[in-house]
């Protein structure tokens, strides 16, 4: 009687499996005939009423029935998977005769190309990169750089004030003050790339926002020859081996002596043309020996330590490199501008 029941359950399970046409139905069949509460498994409760020989024989028949149903369901499952995949692929067929979407590679702003290139050059010379806040305290932006509150040099760097003592930095030199403070009288060799702000008219050659990379070296026995050699190597790496530099006396409140640095004009190789106004040279940066007052205020003994500092305008270098005629183009978010310099960059 029990044997007939097993065969009946198996026959019904196989029939339902064969007629199922989706995975959900098949899962219901699996649960109905193979779960612990299924009719087939409920027959296991009758084993205790049988003799040892009958119990073994009946158990083998139950296991064989369970294996048969499971095998057929698994085979049907694979068949349904293939059928469903084929149906989905047919529905998602792509018409390869349609034109594809054209995706063009983006262009990197020359501003950032120049930052990366100059940073690589100075890293190769042993400099480290330091960063600092663009919203700066008056103490670091002016006072610790030998520009007291009533100093006329502040007129050269009129900026945007948030409060009496908080402002948008006018140069990246405050990062140098932070670095010296952190060094606590030990040698320093850093560059500080970043954005700076000054109240200025916006035209083809001026912007209220511009970029700088400043450098600072402080150690024993540093002299202006080290400054000249560093900037000469930078000019050749940045503008080509033929470029030469010259130093002209200038004034900066945080360096003494101070110099303007010119390089030979790439357009005429120093012979004189309209680009360099007949001089053969183009001004690219400023620098000088760190003022003794700056060394004192930032924890150095000027009798023992000396150093040099320099500052380079990022846009100025990019304009010279790529022949850009308007500084505002760096900040106008015009993708046509970026595409122009994609290959050059």
What descriptive keywords fit this protein?
2 domains; BirA Bifunctional Protein, domain 2; elongated; single chain; alpha+beta; two-stranded antiparallel sheet; 7-stranded mixed beta sheet; 345 residues; 9 strands; 41% helix
Uncertain residue ranges: none
Question: How many strands?
Answer: 9
CATH class of the largest domain: Alpha Beta
- What is the CATH H-level superfamily of the largest domain? Bira Bifunctional Protein, Domain 2
Helix/strand/pairing category: alpha+beta
Looking at the overall shape, the CATH architecture of the largest domain is 2-Layer Sandwich
Question: In angstroms, what separates the terminal alpha carbons?
Answer: 88 Å
Order of strands across the widest beta sheet?
A: 1-4-5-9-8-7-6
The Rg value, from CA coordinates, equals 40 Å
Beta-strand proportion: 15-25%
Q: If you consult CATH, what is the topology of the largest domain?
A: BirA Bifunctional Protein, domain 2
Order of helices and strands: HHHHHEEHEHEEHEEEHEHH
Question: Helix segment count?
Answer: 11
Q: Helix amount, in percent? A: 40-55%
Count structural domains.
Answer: 2
- Sum up the overall morphology in one term: elongated
Characterize the structure shown.
There is one protein chain. It is built from 11 helices and 9 strands. With 345 residues, the protein is α+β, with helices and mostly antiparallel strands. It folds into 2 domains: 2-91, no CATH class; 110-340, 2-Layer Sandwich (BirA Bifunctional Protein, domain 2). The strands form 2 sheets. A 7-stranded mixed beta sheet has the order 1-4-5-9-8-7-6, sandwiched between helices. The chain has a two-stranded antiparallel sheet with strand order 2-3. 28% of the residues are buried.
């Amino acid at each position: 009687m029990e044997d007939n029941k097993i065969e009946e359950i198996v026959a019904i399970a196989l029939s339902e499996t064969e007629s199922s046409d989706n995975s959900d139905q098949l899962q219901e069949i699996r649960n109905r005939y193979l779960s612990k509460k299924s009719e087939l498994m409920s027959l296991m409760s009758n084993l205790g009423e049988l003799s040892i020989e009958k119990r073994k024989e009946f158990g083998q028949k139950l296991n064989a029935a369970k294996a048969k149903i499971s095998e057929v369901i698994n085979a049907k499952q694979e068949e349904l998977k293939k059928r469903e995949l084929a149906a989905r692929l047919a529905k998602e067929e792509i018409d390869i005769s349609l034109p594809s979407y054209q995706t063009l590679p983006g262009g990197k702003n020359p501003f950032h190309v120049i930052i990366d290139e100059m940073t690589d050059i100075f890293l190769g010379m042993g400099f480290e990169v330091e960063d600092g806040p663009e919203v700066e305290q008056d103490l670091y932006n002016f006072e610790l750089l030998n520009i007291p509150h009533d100093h006329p040099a502040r007129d050269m760097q009129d900026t945007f004030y948030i409060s009496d003592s908080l402002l948008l930095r006018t140069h990246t030199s405050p990062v140098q003050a932070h670095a010296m403070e952190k060094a606590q009288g030990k040698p320093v060799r850093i560059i500080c790339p970043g954005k700076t702000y000054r109240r200025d008219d916006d035209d083809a050659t001026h912007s209220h926002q511009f970029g700088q990379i400043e450098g600072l070296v402080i150690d024993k026995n540093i002299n202006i020859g080290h400054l000249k050699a560093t900037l000469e190597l930078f000019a050749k790496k940045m503008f080509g081996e033929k470029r030469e530099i010259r130093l002209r006396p200038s004034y900066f409140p945080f360096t003494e002596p101070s110099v303007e640095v010119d390089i030979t004009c790439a357009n005429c190789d120093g012979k004189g043309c309209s680009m360099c106004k007949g001089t053969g040279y183009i001004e690219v940066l400023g620098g000088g020996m760190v003022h003794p007052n700056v060394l004192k205020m930032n924890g150095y003994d000027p009798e023992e330590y000396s150093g040099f500092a320099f500052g380079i305008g990022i846009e100025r270098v990019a304009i010279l490199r790529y022949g850009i005629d308007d500084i505002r183009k760096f900040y106008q978010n015009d993708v046509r501008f970026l595409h122009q310099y994609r290959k050059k960059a």
